[in-house]
Write a structure and sequence with these properties.
- This protein is mainly α.
- The protein has a domain at 39-88: Multidrug-efflux Transporter Regulator, Chain: A, Domain 2 (Orthogonal Bundle).
- The chain is 52% helix and 11% strand.
- A hairpin with a 2-residue loop joins strand 2 (68-70) and strand 3 (73-77).
């Protein structure tokens, strides 16, 4: 097998690399950033839903409202509460 030597300059290599990078950028899809999920405390969730703490607790126990446990704290995703309002017609 024959060896082929190619003589090139630093500028030629830079141009090749830039061409490759530009071609890759053409095909690149932008990354969609998801909005940060807001977690509400029990008091905030009650205010958001306009209900009392016992009602919220009852809904939580009945599985009507999903919740997140962070250590010993209970939090509610605002998006879940918004969906609940939409589906229940509140």
């Amino acid at each position: 097998m024959e060896q082929v030597k190619i003589l090139t300059t630093e500028n030629d290599i830079k141009k090749i690399v830039n061409d490759i990078v530009n071609e890759l950028k053409k095909n690149e899809k932008p990354i969609e950033e998801k909005p940060e999920e807001r977690l509400l405390t029990t008091a905030e969730a009650c205010e958001f839903l306009r209900c009392s703490k016992p009602t919220l607790h009852r809904w939580k126990k009945a599985g009507i409202i999903p919740f997140v446990r962070i250590g010993s704290n209970i939090r509610y995703k605002q998006s879940d509460l918004e969906k609940l309002i939409e589906t229940k017609g509140g």
